[in-house]
Amino acid sequence: MRPFPVLVTWLALGIALTACASRSDIEAGRLAKEEAAKAEDDAKCRSANAKPGEPAYEACRQELATKRAANAEINYQKARDFDRVLGGLNDL
Hints:
The protein is an all-alpha fold and 92 residues long. The chain is built from 3 helices and no strands. The chain has a domain at 32-92. Helix 2 (23-47) packs across helix 3. The N and C termini lie far apart (46 Å).
């Protein structure tokens, strides 16, 4: 057995494993995105001269959350449709 193919295989495996994100990294990224979205929503609603606790502020935050949820659903559907085209989700 030649050592070169084995070395190349181990090197490729090592690179692939270091490129993988851990579950905690993924969760931390998701939480950071949520916090950024909350801060952005807060800034948008405050720029409309609404203060936390006021009905206008709460309505503004609810509207932005509803829009974000609708966009997330649209993006999910697009990803699902793309996977179907590629044959990844044939059972749905």
